[in-house]
């Protein structure tokens, strides 16, 4: 890992409003989770299914918010290289385009990891403190859900960094982000096989809870599928960035 | 008694040397069999019309593009993917548009370069002072003029204190004052021992700065040498002022003489011996010879005549 290149990516985030976009991502997910809890009069705060309401709210909120915001973050961080002749500047300083993409992923990936964990913890805290849910939280399932959402978020982020690096017109990247949002939300209603076809479909495989007939129920997380997605994405990201390394300026 | 040992003359190897450097795209040669030689400490003017292969050559020197054929030697070492990273530490460059992240200030941009190359603060401050940008460093780059962006790009290239500086059309789009400022900067850098390679499609922009010239046309090197060698290589017309130019043109027809206004007759590609013969022929015909001189031609004329035909 090229540490100075990663630190530089954090330095480049100045004036890019990364904090504002990150805050929007967290606030939107927390608000949607709490809305799922308070909007349903059947939810009993003395019953452990109340936690399922929050998990279900997050399971809808993250696919609704993340794909587009991840596209925006990746686009803003990558477009500057097209606009500022940064690819050549870095290449003539010994940092290849592939290395630059990897540095961007490390820096933005850390930001996305923090945001994903923070929004998950905030919902947990809100359930305990604000809503006053009495039974203990299902911490194992909660952690598994957070981990799965983080994995899918990072895969989508990596894909968007590659798209924004390859296609100079960032409207294309943002358009794909909008399409991803639709796929992420609507794949919850599709059979699991269809959800496996695109990276955004995996948000529905990380569904932690859902409303079933008259109450919120826990759903099993598709760990093997999400682990497979992560491995394949890591491999593809390595292959593509290595190709960028050999690409002529 | 033994004779004193003979010290061989010190021959400084060129900072940049290419051997049959070639780049083709889909069967079309963009750079063709190029043999560059850039002596240490000079300002090398790399000239050629747009699309003649200057930028491609410079990118091959920096290993940003892989040559289809031939070799590149930088400071005596082959430039390959393996040596590239190390050699780039001694090469500053400005290729195509000036770099700079518009949403950051000049100082923030310089800090990125400092961190990436592991430079100290003094190196950054020196580079900024060299391009006289120290009063503009807190301004965002999006608010810079083109000239300021060019200078920031050069400061980024200079920060590593390079032995070789490669600048691709650094005066592009600048006003006359900006061009003069870049010229002065290049002269100062060369005085400090930095070897500068600077490309342009306009001879006038680097004519006064470069002491060695390389002229590229359609990917081929059509001239390489000093300014005076260039003038010699393209011998100007001999102009003979005489009493009867019509008769003189008729007498000198074998030399392709032509009437050149008033009492002048112009004869192309004539060496000194032939000039003496032409004068003798005129005198033999009882035509009064008032004066003989070489036509004055600017370097621009030479450049245009060399590049227009695609080669010598």
Automatic annotation (TrEMBL), chain A:
The protein, known as: ABC transporter permease
Pfam families on file: ABC2_membrane_4
Key word Transmembrane present: yes
Coiled-coil blocks: none
Organism phylogeny: Bacteria, Bacillati, Actinomycetota, Actinomycetes, Micrococcales
Keywords, sorted A to Z: Membrane, Transmembrane, Transmembrane helix
TM ranges: 18-38, 50-73, 105-127, 139-159, 171-190, 221-240
Species the sequence originates in: Kocuria coralli
Superkingdom classification of source: Bacteria
Automatic annotation (TrEMBL), chain B:
A GO MF term: ATP hydrolysis activity
Presence of keyword Cell division: no
Residue ranges constituting the ABC transporter domain according to the UniProt record: 16-243
Keyword line: ATP-binding, Nucleotide-binding, Transport
Family: Belongs to the ABC transporter superfamily.
Protein name: ATP-binding cassette domain-containing protein
Species, as recorded: Kocuria coralli
């Amino acid at each position: 890992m090229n540490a100075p290149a990663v630190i530089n990516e954090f330095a480049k985030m100045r004036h890019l409003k990364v904090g504002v976009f990150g805050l929007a991502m967290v606030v939107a997910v927390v608000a949607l989770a709490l809305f799922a809890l308070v909007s349903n009069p059947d939810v009993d705060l003395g019953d452990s299914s109340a936690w399922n309401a929050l998990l279900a709210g997050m399971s809808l909120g993250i696919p609704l918010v993340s794909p587009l915001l991840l596209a925006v973050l990746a686009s803003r961080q990558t477009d500057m290289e097209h606009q500022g002749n940064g690819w050549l500047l870095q290449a003539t300083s010994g940092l290849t385009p592939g290395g630059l993409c990897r540095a961007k992923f490390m820096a933005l990936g850390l930001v996305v990891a923090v945001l994903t964990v923070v929004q998950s913890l905030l919902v947990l805290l809100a359930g305990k403190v604000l809503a006053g849910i009495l039974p203990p939280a299902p911490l194992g399932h909660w952690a598994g859900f957070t981990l799965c959402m983080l994995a899918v978020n990072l895969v989508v982020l990596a894909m968007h960094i590659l798209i924004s690096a390859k296609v100079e017109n960032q409207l294309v990247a943002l358009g794909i982000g909008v399409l991803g949002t639709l796929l992420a939300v609507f794949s919850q209603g599709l059979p699991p096989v269809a959800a496996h076809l695109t990276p955004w479909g995996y948000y529905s495989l990380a569904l932690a809870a859902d409303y079933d007939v008259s109450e919120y129920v826990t759903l099993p997380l598709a760990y093997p599928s999400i682990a497979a997605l992560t491995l394949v994405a890591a491999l593809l990201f390595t292959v593509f960035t290595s190709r960028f390394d050999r690409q002529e300026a | 008694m033994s004779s004193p040992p003979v010290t061989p003359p010190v021959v400084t190897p060129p900072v940049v040397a290419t051997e049959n450097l070639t780049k083709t795209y889909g069967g079309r040669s963009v750079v063709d069999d190029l043999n560059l030689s850039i002596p240490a400490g000079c300002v090398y003017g790399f000239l050629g019309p747009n699309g003649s292969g200057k930028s491609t050559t410079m990118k091959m020197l920096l290993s940003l593009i892989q040559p289809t054929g031939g070799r590149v030697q930088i400071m005596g070492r082959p430039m390959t993917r393996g040596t590239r990273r190390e050699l780039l530490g001694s090469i500053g460059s400005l290729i195509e548009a000036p770099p700079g992240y518009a949403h950051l200030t000049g100082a923030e941009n310089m800090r990125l370069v400092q961190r990436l190359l592991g430079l100290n603060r003094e190196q950054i401050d020196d580079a900024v002072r060299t391009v006289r940008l120290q009063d503009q460093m807190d301004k965002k780059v999006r608010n810079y003029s083109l000239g300021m962006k060019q200078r920031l790009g050069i400061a980024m290239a200079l920060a590593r204190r390079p032995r070789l500086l490669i600048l691709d059309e650094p005066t592009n789009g600048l006003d006359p004052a900006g061009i003069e400022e870049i010229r002065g900067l290049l002269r100062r850098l060369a005085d400090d021992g930095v070897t500068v390679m600077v490309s342009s499609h306009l001879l006038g922009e680097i004519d006064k700065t470069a002491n060695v010239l390389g002229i590229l046309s359609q990917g081929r090197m059509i001239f390489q040498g000093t300014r005076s060698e260039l003038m010699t290589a393209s011998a100007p017309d001999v102009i003979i002022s005489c009493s009867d130019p019509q008769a003189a043109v008729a007498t000198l027809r074998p030399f392709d003489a032509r009437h050149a206004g008033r009492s002048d007759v112009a004869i192309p590609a004539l060496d000194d011996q032939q000039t003496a013969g032409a004068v003798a022929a005129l005198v033999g015909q009882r035509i009064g010879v008032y004066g003989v001189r070489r036509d004055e031609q600017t370097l621009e004329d030479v450049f245009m005549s060399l590049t227009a035909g695609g080669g010598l």
